[in-house]
Design brief:
With 62 residues, this protein is mostly helical. It has a domain of 28 residues. 65% of the residues lie in helices and 0% in strands. It has three helices and no strands. The N and C termini lie close together (11 Å).
Amino acid sequence: MGLRSALISLTPAALDKMQGVREAIASVNSDAVAGLEPDQRETFLATLRSIIAALDAIPDEE
């Protein structure tokens, strides 16, 4: 299964909304880990970083 990528650009109207989007993302992320102990949170985040690195290492098929 090949992976595809695309470059997109936001419209000026969308760019104006980015701060609100960033705040919403931060709030959801905070809620997602709120019930975890600090060591659990670090383990969770380290696992996510490992998953992202593994996905980034998959070569693109063209």
